[in-house]
Design goal:
alpha/beta; ABC transporter transmembrane region fold; Rossmann fold; 3 domains; four-stranded mixed sheet; 24 helices; Putative ATP-binding cassette transporter; ATP hydrolysis activity; transport
Length: about 700
């Protein structure tokens, strides 16, 4: 930005020198405004990169417009291209836009938006694999993003310039009709309109193509960024445990991300285009109505139609906001209610068997009716509010059509303006009014956009709070140690609200020594296993894992992802980590030979398999992964004792180097373990280990 500021300042000095002493040179305000632009760019060097792109493009627009007009003043622009040169005042308009962008960068809601957007533009990751050579044109995704936004702004800026030329064409065309000048009429058709039309089509298609590709790439990057952050370091688990789980994170990642990107690009480019249109057509409208008097009086009001448009739009904007303000809250609630209803349906599908066995259809229907009633009630509230807004907006916009003719018609009949000027003024008034009424037209979109921003911000905040849990002392520290044991030192395990549940001063789970952990329900056995696995964030102390050794925890209820059976068995390893022979051998070892020929079948395996089969499949994963310590949290509870024996024998045979640590209540499990540790709640309500192979561990 510093370099751009220097270039703009130097070029402004050059424009000033070249325009001196020349009759048709640049107006003085153009180079002067360039110096102002250079100062603004220098001050804006540290604002959001997303906003700096806009400012950089406006600086480029200033240089191109001022440069083209300078060349035209020296007769260096061919006559056929002269009609396409934007008016000189457009250069100053670029300066106004840059100043406006710099000003809005200090608005809190804009800062919130740019905080969400900026990380993409700083990304150093390569991307664009889905777009052939175009996708690989830039070395990093961030550079590609900057270039594409710049191109989108440029095409929008060109389209505004073409709109101005169309407005001038309207004036000249209707003047030719009024004067019955056939030569001028056909010149306007073939040599002005046709070139303008060709350029308009080209830039419309260019804008559509770049904008679409950019949105796809941004969504791909931001979606991957969110779900990676959500899953990394067990953030999704910590959010649930801590009670900071932003509702329906799946929707925030899938729906809200897409909505945020679409609305950000649509509103930002539209707003900038409307500002460019506003400034440009305001100048034209001011010139057309400079000598108009206020109706019914002899008082001359310079730029009367401009002031009428401003007043008309200001009143409309205030009324629209008063009518539509509740929409922000209603749109936020609608996203929440819709997501809750979808989640209820998805959860019902997941637990379909249990609902059927319990004959729970009536209860489920009642729950679904309640959730859907929230959706419908809120939709009706939104409908009522939008009817008020749309009714007002349609009425307000239609009334504005007659305004320019009402004020300009008398001057046409007095022959103070031509038919072309009347048409030009009417169109310019419409453009100015539309630009000033942008807030009115886009209010419902802005309300939904604000709700989307709020949902993404709360999601990021929830992830941020979860990410720091367990990282600030005191916390459970997981270290590597040279000893050949999974060692617990001064471990204190707490619940999220702060109550202590387990205390262990010292406990070694030695390699090669299978251990059975017992204790009454609620004594903290599963929580202890989660601390050993490194995912429980509450407490203090130390868990030492021998260097280079792995720990795998199998919960009572396995997770089985959607997809083919091969990938479900390989989980959590990525697809292709194990060959089919190893997978089939693991299935046979755990008693699932019927599945060996179904590895390519896609199914909802979490519903297709019984509870016992799911636990067998989870054991098959352990046989493939070959961990050094295997923590089984009642991982065979759905099996009968005979099948459980088969499973433990299969583990012992396939994983002779793996140390098994089990939680279980069956007495038959003792046969598969050399040592037993009981977690016993003491008088203070805290559970402490009693090692039956040794003396009881002293209380901490």
């Amino acid at each position: 930005m510093k370099l751009i500021a220097i270039v703009v300042g130097a070029m402004s000095a050059a424009f000033l020198a070249l325009s001196q002493g020349q009759a048709n040179g640049l107006p003085l305000f153009v180079p002067v405004s360039g110096f102002v632009l250079a100062a603004i760019l220098w001050l804006a060097r540290d604002i959001s990169i997303f906003l700096r792109i806009f400012m950089g493009m406006y600086a480029l627009g200033y240089l191109l417009i001022a440069g083209a007009n300078t060349l035209a003043s020296y007769g260096l622009v061919p006559q056929t291209l002269g009609a396409l040169v934007p008016p000189a005042f457009m250069a100053t308009a670029s300066v106004s836009f840059a100043g406006l962008v710099f000003g809005v960068s200090f608005i809190p809601v804009v800062r919130t938006i740019t905080d969400l957007a900026d990380p993409y533009f700083y990304s150093v990751r390569s991307g664009g694999e889905n777009f052939s050579w175009f996708g690989r044109l830039f070395r990093s995704e961030g550079r590609a993003a900057v270039a594409m936004v710049a191109a989108i702004i440029a095409t929008n800026f060109v389209q505004v310039g073409l709109n101005i030329k169309f407005n001038l064409w309207y004036r000249d065309l209707f003047d030719a009709l009024q004067n019955k000048n056939a030569d001028a009429f056909w010149y306007q058709i073939w040599w002005v309109f046709i070139p303008l039309l060709v350029f308009w089509i080209i830039f419309q298609l260019l804008d559509f193509t770049i904008d679409t590709i950019f949105r796809i790439r941004w969504r791909q990057w931001l979606t991957e960024s969110y779900f990676s952050r959500w899953l990394d370091r067990s953030t999704h688990y910590k959010m649930g445990v801590a009670g900071q789980n932003a509702d329906n994170p799946d929707q925030r990642i899938s729906v809200d991300v897409a909505s945020f990107i679409s609305s950000t690009m649509t509103l930002s480019t539209q707003m900038m285009a409307q500002l460019a249109t506003l400034v440009s057509f305001t100048v034209l409208l001011w010139g057309l109505s400079e000598g108009f008097t206020f109706p019914g009086t002899a008082v001359v009001i310079p730029g009367l139609l401009v002031w009428i448009a401003v007043a008309y739009s200001l009143v409309g904007t205030i009324l629209t906001h008063l009518i539509g303000r509740p929409l922000i809250r209603l749109d936020f609630l609608q996203e929440k209610f819709e997501a809750n209803f979808r989640f209820s349906l998805a959860r019902l599908r997941e637990y379909g068997e249990q609902v059927a066995l319990l004959r729970g259809a009536d209860a489920e229907k009642a729950n679904l009716r309640g959730g859907f009633a929230q959706v419908i009630t809120n939709v009706i509230d939104i409908l009522k509010r939008r009817l008020k807004i749309e009714g007002f907006r349609f009425s307000w916009q239609q009334m504005s059509v007659a305004f320019p003719y009402l004020f300009m018609g008398p001057y046409f009949f007095l022959e103070r303006i031509t038919l072309g000027q009347l048409q030009q003024g009417a169109q310019a008034f419409g453009q100015v009014n539309a630009s000033l009424s942008f807030f009115i037209s886009a209010y419902t979109t802005l309300a939904a956009y604000k709700a989307t921003i709020d949902r993404l911000v709360t999601f990021e905040d929830a992830m941020g709070r979860a990410e720091v849990i367990g990282t600030v002392p005191p916390h459970i520290e997981r270290k590597t140690a040279p000893e050949n044991a999974l060692a617990i030192r001064d471990l204190r395990i707490d619940l999220p609200h702060g109550a202590r549940i387990v205390e262990i001063d010292r406990l070694d789970l030695r390699a090669g020594e299978p251990v059975l952990v017992n204790g009454p329900s609620g004594s903290g056995k599963s929580t202890l296993f989660r601390a050993l696995a490194g995912i429980w964030p509450y407490g203090s102390g130390e868990v030492d894992v021998p260097e280079g050794r792995s720990v795998m925890l199998l919960p009572q209820r396995p997770y089985i992802p959607q997809g083919n059976l091969r990938d479900a068995i390989s989980y959590p390893a990525v697809a292709g980590a194990y060959d089919d022979a190893a997978i089939k051998a693991a299935l046979i070892a755990v008693g699932l030979p019927a599945l060996v020929n179904r590895l390519d079948d896609d199914d909802s395996w979490g519903q297709r398999l019984s509870g016992g089969e799911q636990q067998r499949l989870a054991i098959a994963r352990a046989l493939l992964a070959k961990p050094d310590w295997l923590l089984l949290d009642e991982a065979s509870s759905a099996l009968d004792e005979k099948s459980e024996r088969v499973i433990y024998e299969a583990i012992a045979a396939a994983l002779p180097g793996t140390t098994i640590v089990s939680i279980g209540h069956r007495s038959t499990l003792a046969a598969f373990h050399d040592r037993r540790v009981d977690l016993q709640p003491m008088d203070d309500g805290v559970s402490r280990p009693v090692d039956l192979a040794r003396e009881p561990v002293p209380a901490g």
